[in-house]
Amino acid sequence: MTRKQERILIILSVLNFIVIGGLTALIAHTMFDVPAMPPVVQAQISPCMQAMLDACNTLPEPFQGTSAHGVTVAWDTTQLYITLHAVYPFATPPPESAQLLWTVLDEIAAVLQSGCYTPETITIALTAHGNTGSVQYLAQLAGQDITAWMAGTLAEESLAAQSRFRQTAQ
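^ that's the sequence the OP posted. Answer follows.
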């Protein structure tokens, strides 16, 4: 092999080493690089939904501590769905715990009177917890019935009769 051929082989070897090293570095960089965190998008809720959440989180006993149990409110043009909890210091919730639905309805009325729109359907899912047992209440009311009740043209008894109600002991 001539001196010129040796130099060409050395140059090609060095170039080969640089290309392979660069490719190795590129692969290692893509394998071990921590992907960028996507930006955190904060969910925006409507003022009416926030007002309903605030009203539910400030309900008196036995609703005390409801935020720890997770009050949820879902509200759009067709429905308002509220889930909340009441806690009693008894073994099982008393039978009159169903009356708590009226307390929640009073809060709904206050929020609706503040300028919020009335959805077609309003559903309240209330779980009353005792030390050893729970009772679930589910009330579903028509928005137009709530509006009439708030206006005084529909009595509480008629509102209760026109609503769907279910009670389940757990």
